[in-house]
Each structure stands twice: as C-alpha cells, then as structure tokens.
Amino acid sequence: MTVFIQTCTLGSGSKTVAVKDTIDIQGLPTRAGSAALAQTEPAAQHAHVIKRLLSHSDFCINGKTNLHEFAFGVTGINQATGTPTNPKYPHLIPGGSSSGSAVAVASGQADMALGTDTGGSVRMPAACCGVFGLKPTFGRVSREGVLPKHSSLDCVGSFARTADDLWHITKAMLEDLQDVQLPSTISLGRLTPSCADEVSKTLDNALAKLSYVQYPVELPSLDEAFKAGLTIINQETWAAFHEYANNPLVGADIRKRLLMASNTTAEAVQEAEAVRAHFTAEVDQALNKVTALVLPTLPRIPLALADALAGKTDLTLTALIRPFNLSGHPALTLPLISTDGEPVGLQLVGRKGDDERLCLLAQQIQQQLGD
User: Fold this and answer.
1) pLDDT mean values, one per 10 residues, the chain (371 residues)
2) 121 in active site
3) How far apart are CA 262 and CA 4, in angstroms?
4) Residue 55's domain is classified under what CATH number?
5) pTM for the full predicted model
C-alpha cells in the first residue's frame, strides 16, 4: 500500500494529519507523485495551510501522501510511485488525484488528511474510499505553497473518517473563521441528475431518513459546467506542466493528457469562462431558498481497479463534482454504502463562504443516519 512517500513528524498534537505531496512541507521536496520531480530541492518553508495547522496544538503531521501524477487524473493510478490500495474496497480504484490522502484516512494511518481538489480530487477519492471529504469555497483556504502555483479552480481540502473530525480540521484551515449555527429549519434542494440505479436508490434511502424539508431543484447548465471545467483545467495544467509533456520520466497517461491539453484554444477558454459566470449564478439562485443542495457525489460505482491498471479511465465520473470547482462553491461528500456493499457518496453544496455551516450540516446528517 503506497500511501506515504515521505515520512515526517511535525507538531505534538494527538490528531495525525497526512499531507498530499503537492503541498509544501519545509525540508521535504514537493514531487507531485512524479519521477520527473525526483531531484526537486526541499521546500524552504511550509505552505500557509501547514503553518496554520501547526499553530494549533491538536495536530501532528505524520507524512506526505502519494497521488495521481501532477494531480491530473481521477483514478489514483501511479505506475512510477505506486498506487495506494483502497482499504475498504480493494477491488475498486482509490480515486484521484488525492488517492494517498483518502487511503491514509480510510486505513487508519492518519486521523485526517489534506488533499487538493481542482476537478473533484478530494471528493472523488473520499467517495471511492468511504470517508468524508470537503472542497472549501474557492479562496477560503490559502493556496500559498501549493503546486501548481496558479489555479482558478484548485482548493486545499480535507479528509476525515467522521464529520466531527472533518469540522475539527476545517476550523483550523479556514481563513476568517465565522461563528455560525444551523438554522432551526433545514431545507435541502434535491438535484436528480442521471445516475446508476444503485446510486439513486442508495441516496433516496439515506435522504428518507433525514428530518429536513426537501425541494426539487434543477441546474440546467450542469453538463455544460462539467465540460467547461475540463477546458479550464486543461488550459491551466498545460500552463503549469507543459515542460514535462515529452519527459520520459512522466507517466504515459499524463503525457497523453498534457499533449491533448495543449490543444485548448483561447476561444474555448473564453466560452468556458462564460459558462462559469452563468453556472455560478445558476447555483447561487438554486441556493437562495435552501440550506444546501444535495446530489450524488459520483454518478456510478467507482471504476474497477483491474480496469484502471489496464489503462482505462473515465473522466465522466467527475460529472457531478467538477462543476462546483468551476463555480467555486463549497462541496462536501459523506460516505454511504449501497445494498450491494459498494461505496456511494452523498454530496452537499453550500453557498459561497458557508463552509462552516456545511460542516455542521454534515455532522447532523451523520447523527441522523446513525453511522
């Protein structure tokens, strides 16, 4: 199980935290799961989010975790530095790109973990591995000291086995923490995108147990936002890593994706930005009268590990998570289990800046579901 690719002990707290290897830790190189970065110099200082965690007495960082190379993949497969084994569902992919962070938490090797989420890279592996995962509002957690340096989509997010622990680490990470409470009456806006029957039934069963008012809502631009998110991530990842496109030390899957990303045109980016503005307004409007939106995290059961190791991938697994990177809204996934014993995620999406309330809602939902 290739989870920790660099070990360390920082901080004296009782809660252990594993850190994705795109986040700088002073004295350790940041290699982004790539053999091409094997000779990278150690980071001169901690990323801002690491400084924040270490300023609290509760946390102890116990290592840096492996990932899908350059954080540019959804399966978590990494032939060069190793693929972390999904501990609860070893027949399935661990999910990417923050595979090692999700596995570290699911396996108990860390109480919590940090990952990054540019197109679902926290929520995807959290759903695959059966843990909680949060993508915060874009900009509410500092990206200073995080690779790539520039991104309009990427957020430093967190993993935990319980909603209580997710809230505990989120409080330490957020800039300008707000003292909020849940409203006396909670309402959910229910989205019903096209999903596998097993996923829809599992979500229906969970929502039937909750004591909340539920309203049907629609996001007509959801599919467009998924495609626009792919366009933006391709353009920004090419800008960050284009120099490695022909490097033989980079995995063949990543080189192929980078070369495809190089074809992203300025016109396509302009169109994607128009979708971003429209979809963001659409989500804002849908959230006007509800506490949060609710929908599946993934539209299907995650890909079989054997298929992924054979080279198969499926970017459409991020169809329901990537759009909220484009819009910048906070999004959180809670673990569910289907009647067939497979992982399913319940995704909550909140108003921008409402990360605290979203975490409190997840705590209450976990209590009501009795998990």
Assistant:
1) 87 94 98 96 98 95 97 96 97 98 98 98 98 98 98 98 98 94 96 98 98 97 98 98 97 96 98 98 97 98 97 96 98 98 98 98 97 63
2) yes
3) 32
4) 3.90.1300.10
5) 0.98
